[in-house]
Fold these 2 entries.
Entry 1:
Amino acid sequence: MNKSSKDMVFFKDVIAGYKRSRLWKKLAVLELKSRYQGAVIGSFWIVLALALKVFMLSLVYSMVLDAVFEDYVMFLALGLLTWNFISAIIITSGTVFKKSANFLQQMDLPLSIFVYQNVYREVLSLIMYQLFAIPLVIILKGWGVISWIWLWALLGYLIIILNAFFVCMWLGWLSARFRDFQSLLGSLVMIVFLVTPILWPPPPEFAGSLYFQLNPFYHLLELIRAPILHNQVPVLSWYVSCGVLLFNVMVCVIFYRTIRHRLVLWL
């Protein structure tokens, strides 16, 4: 098998996993339903929890930061719903293969099936978040705020979801190999949350500083915020986000051949 054929093995796994979409979609929906089993409004707690969090944080931080409430609540809502998706992917990637150990130990299945399941479940939550965020922006700014530039935000979500897929894959490998890594992920997510402009807007005089420009999470958030809040296409953020996507793909391609047959032994 030549080098190019070996590099294609990972993509064959991704394609084979996608072809079993009925399986991972069903697993994702069942997992999401099980979270809210017995609740009166079911999975709509996802939307309600986000709305309550945004409202209470906006009341406090708009006063602390001396910001206009209407502007800040939109800034926070768009940033928080996007961050919720990113952080959920990072944290749950620690168990994406561990919880599927029975499947992997008894059947020869593509590894990507369980990554698809994890990402699809969080995408469903992300879609439900939009039931709160988009109406909020329209209510505060009116129908005239809608612009074709918003389509760039939709493309931004696509880049974020693609990054989430490949990150979930290699973080899942690391967590299966090194048991302590899963605990580390939660701490890292909290640190990134505090140092990334999610609760607070970057000061205009420092927006172009390396502190923000070297933070990939800042650029991922800008893919969504800039088109909707400022009617701007964040060109630099697109370059950085595509670069991060390329990095994640390369990590998966390079290490897949080594990990594919060892993963079961680590579970």
Entry 2:
Amino acid sequence: MKQILLFLLVALFSSCSKENDVLAEPTSRTLIVYYSYTGNVQAIVDESLKLTEADVVEIQPAEEGLKYEADNYALGSALIGAIRANPDDAGSYPEIKSVDIDFNQYDNIIVATPLWWSNMAAPMQTFLFHNGGKMAGKNIALVVSSASSGISSVVDDAHRLIPDGNFSDEALWINNSNRNNMPSLLGNWIKSLNFSGTMAQKLFITVGNATITATMVDNVATQALIAVLKESPISYEASDYGDFEKVGPLGRSLPTANEQTTTQAGDIVLYNGNQIVIFYGSNSWSYTRIGKIDDISQEELKSVLGDGNCTITLSLSKDFSTGVQKVHGDADNAMKSSRSPMYDLQGHEITAPTNGQVYIQDGRKWLIQE
């Protein structure tokens, strides 16, 4: 059976919750609903949760252990055939385990499903047949991934089953030729969606060989920081202060939204508009909140940050150093012809590039040549 991973983003965001029967009380405005048979869709869901917060519901067949590919895909083919023959008959759809979702709590929904025989996987069609009407007016986006086949019939299924959804302009197609780039493709696509509510931006923090993530808040400081990080990562030197924080100069000033705050381990704040502080202890002061480090204990965080001075790199992607793949021309000439700043691969701004080194300017890599 050719697998096409459809990520039907019918947005609903929150913390990750994976229930077979009842979805817990939602904590965000986006929902990911998915069905995964081979694990490919599960991988997309896992990657999505690194990029944004969402509630998660897994769709499961009522009968466990079915082998849809057995006997030359006899069962899977029969299920799709029955739906094609009578798409308006509830009896055409295979049974799934019950789910109970309060769609009023969500503005956006993500449905992730494989493609079976050019159509949406039968279990996901069952879910949408019974729930698509409840998604009227919701923001819906599609991600389709396949071995090589086109996805137009899966998109048609989604529109048929959710007739009054507000679909995004473009579906994301993940296939065997681009699957290795799925994290970056998914990240860029999620950022492009015009979903209502706040989509939590992930911040990647690299110290030495360790990279951890933080969930950013939405304010004037983080909006400005995201704009800078879209151009290039930022690296800075940080040092311990007061035995409760790592602090270092950002190298630029950001707008502030200061408020009296008692911090906890894992909090990230902006101090004086130009210094980033990562707390491994607690302090009370007037700061601008940046975010909170994800899923890490105080001792684990202290271990990552280490003792004494360290270099910290902030980025919007874990693989920040390879985000720009192609090397172009002569960096020295590029700097002379462009007013944009140039950075090394660690995010430091460069004014005097070195021969033989690669630098980033205007989103492109440049090689210094004599």
